[in-house]
Specification:
It is a single chain. The protein has 2 helices and 2 strands, in the order αββα. By secondary structure, the chain is an alpha+beta fold. The protein has 2 domains: 30 residues; 40 residues. The chain has a two-stranded antiparallel sheet with strand order 1-2. The protein starts with a helix and ends with a helix. The relative contact order is 0.08.
């Protein structure tokens, strides 16, 4: 019984990773994604700091909406 639970967990993790990979591939094709107003970029000699605050908020809202639709009872 415990082996079945572990197998299902691994399948769910695998499906989740595939979905995440597909999402990232799609987002790479959108030119404005990651360059929104509110995303902080600091470039100095030898290093760059990138903090995508607005992009993280947008992704959070979209994923929350999708998860609420999928798991609604």
């Amino acid at each position: 019984m415990a082996l079945e639970s572990l197998a299902r967990l691994l399948i769910y993790i695998g499906v989740g990773l595939v979905m995440l990979g597909g999402f990232l591939l799609l987002m790479a094709r959108i030119p404005w994604f990651g360059n929104l107003p509110g995303d902080i970029v600091v470039r100095r000699e030898g290093w760059t700091l990138y903090v995508p605050i607005t992009t993280m908020i947008l992704v959070s809202v979209v994923l929350t909406f999708i998860i609420n639709i999928v798991f609604r009872k």
